[in-house]
Prior knowledge:
Blueprint: E1 3-9, E2 13-20, E3 25-32, E4 44-45, H1 47-65, E5 72-79, E6 85-87, E7 97-98, H2 106-116, H3 118-125, H4 134-144, H5 146-149, E8 154-156, H6 158-167, E9 171-173, H7 174-177, E10 183-184, E11 189-190, H8 192-197, E12 207-209, E13 214-217, H9 220-226, E14 233-235, E15 238-239, H10 240-247, E16 255-260, E17 264-270, E18 282-285, E19 292-298, H11 302-312, H12 314-323, H13 327-335, E20 346-348, E21 366-368, H14 376-400, E22 407-411, H15 418-428, E23 432-435, H16 440-452, H17 459-466, E24 469-473, H18 477-509
Parallel strand pairs: 1-5, 5-15, 9-12, 16-22, 22-23
Antiparallel strand pairs: 1-2, 2-3, 4-7, 6-8, 10-11, 13-14, 16-17, 17-19, 18-19, 20-21, 23-24
Helix pairs in contact: 1-6, 2-4, 10-16, 11-12, 11-14, 12-13, 13-14, 14-15, 15-18
Amino acid sequence: xxxxxxxxxxTTGAKTVVIDNEGKVVSTATVEYPLYTPKPNWAEQNPxxxxxxxxxxxxxxxxxxxxxxxxxxxxGLTGQMHGLVLLDRENKVLRPCIxxxxxxxxxxxxxxxxxxxxxxxxKILCNxxxxxxxxxxxxxxxxxxxxxxxxxxxxxLPKDYIRFKLTxxxxxxxxxxxxxxLLDVPRRQWAKEILDIFSIPIEWLPKCYESPEITGYITxxxxxxxxxxxxxxxxxxxxxxxxxxxxxxxxxxxxxxVTLGTSGVVFAHTDEVKIDPQGRIHSFCHAIPHRWHVMGVxxxxxGSLRWFRDRFCQEEVKIARKKKxxxxxxxxxxxxxxxxxxxxxxxxxxxxxxRTPHADPYAKGVFLGISLLHTKSHFTRAILEGVAFGLRxxxxxxxxxxxxxxQVRISGGGARSELWKQIIADVLGxxxxxxxxxxxxxxxxxxxxxxxxxxxxxxEEAAEKMIKITGKTSxxxxxxxxxxxxxQQYKLLYKLLKDTFFNLHKIISG
Length: 510
C-alpha cells in the first residue's frame, strides 16, 4: 500500500490528512491558530503560527496512522487563497499576512482597475480587481507601509510559505496564483505587462508550476522535526477551492460543486477560459493541467449561521451540550417546523461584504419582513434560505455563460444538514449528490500528490478511482416554483440598498 499526505493551511487551522492509494483516509489532524482583527475590516494571521501548526499536525498523523514517514510517497499543499506573505532577503516575514477576507484596500483596487483598464483586465487577468485578491493588498502595503515595501524580496501565498519552510523552494502553482491578479490566466504564466504597470519586480514572485508537478523536496532539517523522510517530493497542490474541487471529483465539464463552509462556493470545471464580462464570477486556472474553472463566492454562507448561533442561540448551545449533540442540529430542527419562505422573512447574507454577484465590501446583512409572528426558528430558516438564494445567484451566471450543469456535488460543514440540503435543492431546482469524502481541500491536495508521484497518470484518473457517490437529495418541483418567486424579491434587495450600505459606511467611519 502507498501513502500520500495533503496539507491545508486554512483560515482557522492547519489540517493534515493521510490517504492510501485507493483514496481511503488513514489519519487526519487539525491544529488551530488565531486570526487577528486590529482594525475594523482588517484580518491578519502570523505565518509562523501556520508553520508550528503544520509541524504538529504532520507529527500527529504520522503517529496515529503508524505508517512512518518513510512510507509517505509525496505531499500536496493547499490553503486559503489570496493572503499576502512578504519575506525579506533573509527570509524573515516582514509583517502579518493580510488575509483573503481583509477589506482595507478598496481604494487601491479602484486605482489598479483604472490603471490597467478594462480591456487588459479581462484579457489577461480574466477577473475584476477586488479587495479579497492579492494585488490590492500589495499596493496597500506600498502606499501605507513604504518602510516594509522597500524590504520585500519575495511575495508568497499562505500555502507557498509552508512550501518554502518544507523544501526551501520559492514556488507556487497556477490555481492559487490566479487569485493574486498577477497571473496571465489564459497563458498560465506571470503577467509581466501587469507587473510593469505597477513596477513590481518579477523576481519577487516564485516559480509557477502546474498543480500536480513536483516543486521541491522535504529538507533534512524538516525531516528531523516532522518525521517525514528527507527527499519526499512536494507537489504544487492548489488553492483551497481548486483542491476542494479535485477532492470532490470536479474534473470534467458538467460537474459543479457547492461547498458550504464559512463561505459558500460554486465551482464549475471548464475546458477553456470562460469570462463573465460583468465580473460577477471568477475565472481561474484549475488544478488540472491546461484546464480552467469558474467560481462564484459568497463570503458568509455557513458563517451566517455560525454568527447567529454565537450571538443569539446560547440556549440551543446549552441544550445541545446536555443532549451531546450539535447546536446546529437543535437550530435546524426548529427551522424544519417553519414553512418554506419563513412566513415572509427574507435574509440578505452579506455580513462581511460580498463578492458574487456583487463585488461590494460595504454590503451588509439584512433581515426584511420581520413581524410579531416571527420566532427564532423563523430567523434560522430565513438564514438557510438566504444562503441558498445567494448560491442561486452563481448558478444563474453559469447559465448565462452557457456552462452546462449535469451534476451538483455538495460538501462542507453545511452539507451535514439534511434540511439545508433540501432547501438548496428546492431553491436551485437541481439534484444534489454527496460523496464518500469529507476531508475537503486537504484530500484534494493529497490526490494531486498521487499524480506527482506517478501513482496515477492524471488527476482525472485519480479522482475517478477514489471518489464515489453516496447520497442524493432531489428537488421538490412545487417548492422550486415557490422559491423562484421569492428569489425574484431577494434579488431586488441589494439594488434597493446598495447606496444605503455605502452611506452607512461613510457615516460610521467618519
